[in-house]
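Bench log. Compound arrived from synthesis this morning; before running ITC I wanted a structural hypothesis for how zinc ion sits in the protein. Inputs:
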Amino acid sequence: MTRAGEAGAAAERDAAGERLRTAGGLPAHRLVGWEEAYPGLRAGVTAGAEAGDLGMASDRPPAEWLERMEAALSALGGRGIVLPRQVHGRRVVEVEGRPTGVLVPGEADGLSTSEPGTFLAVTVADCVPVFVLDPASRALALLHAGWRGTAGGVLEAGLAAMEERYGSRRPELLVHLGPAICGSCYEVGPEVPRALGRDANGKVRLDLRAELGERAESRGIAARNLSRSAACTRCGADHFFSYRGTGTAKRMAAFLGWQTGEAGV
Ligand SMILES: [Zn+2]
């Protein structure tokens, strides 16, 4: 297992070019590298306190959540935004049709679409948002991967969904592992590495993005197409919510979609 604090983490590249910026009134860690390479693509993770709580299960009134989601959708230039009820599983739902407004399609930890204007979203606060882009078909998937989902195979399910639904070829897929708790900050009991198929005794530190990166490469994702955020939601806490860091119920929303033109909305 890749251990926390080792030099490897510093060497991880971030070809997706994650950067904090505010566009359309939405402060977010944007995947500027992807957005510049693919005009019309909007990808990123909302900035913690600056963008506010986008978690469905928070103690705030649902109307407030809905308002924030609608504002995010408007800032991104989409027709609809889809956010599943996350259960740390491996189900990846294909968004059907062309939804408008905010849609919750039920329980899942991943979404896919090939429809411009349909924004995919998952919420995170230490778990890894996994962005998948097929430049050939322009299909997209967005996954929520904590340790349970990773052990359960949500990444593998997402890659298989891209292949089956959109004819994606794995060596062409781009995969970005977004802001999440880093290996130095994430201490877990031995049941976690065991669930991931590793031997362990006692507490260990786990770099979930390194684990997901290894899995992605072993499932056919090219190293040149795989990138990892250097940001930690816990020790880089200024612009993030961290469940481990503060016990917060607040969540950031990761988003991925193609903007619609005026005529397409
Ligand atoms: Zn950290």
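What the model suggests: The chain has one domain: 7-258. The two ends are 46 Å apart (CA to CA).
ITC booked for Thursday regardless.
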